[in-house]
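step=encode ok
step=design start
structure_in=
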């Protein structure tokens, strides 16, 4: 997936088309890896910042307890990778919609965001509402805090 992103070299007009495609993705007209962000480099930083999946959903599908776990994880982490066996869902897009619904049913705020998904890894990166905007503005992932020499002592 990383090679695909590097090969895109999109200009502003192509980015505008990408946002139009995002609507097609939500309507089920587009399959495959998708990142609904203007700054693909920022999306990659967010993907790499979230080191590993903190929730796994197997072939039997998602339950309300999975939704509750995602709600708790998002409250603690802002963005969470979820590893999914898409067998029960049919696609990662369907898995996102189902898991998002279960999390919101468990008390998560409405509007959980799809940051990115990768079919090959069978992973979805979920974010709290507003996370996409923070990524686009460079506010997420947070910048590393530099230690002063006094702190090392």
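sequence_out=
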């Amino acid at each position: 997936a990383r090679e695909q992103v590097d090969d895109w070299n999109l200009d502003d007009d192509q980015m505008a088309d990408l946002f139009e495609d995002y609507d097609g993705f939500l309507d089920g007209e587009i399959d495959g890896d998708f990142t609904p962000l203007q700054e693909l480099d920022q999306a990659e930083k967010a993907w790499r910042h979230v080191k590993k999946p903190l929730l796994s959903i197997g072939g039997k599908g998602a339950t309300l307890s999975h939704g509750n776990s995602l709600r708790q994880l998002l409250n603690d982490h802002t963005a969470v990778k979820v590893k999914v066996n898409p067998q029960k869902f049919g696609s990662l897009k369907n898995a996102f919609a189902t898991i998002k619904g279960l999390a919101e049913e468990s008390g998560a705020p409405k509007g959980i965001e799809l940051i990115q998904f990768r079919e090959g890894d069978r992973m979805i990166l979920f974010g709290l509402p507003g996370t996409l905007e923070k990524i686009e503005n460079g506010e997420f992932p947070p910048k590393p805090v530099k230690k002063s020499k006094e702190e090392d002592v």
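step=design ok
step=annotate ok -> The radius of gyration is 16 Å.
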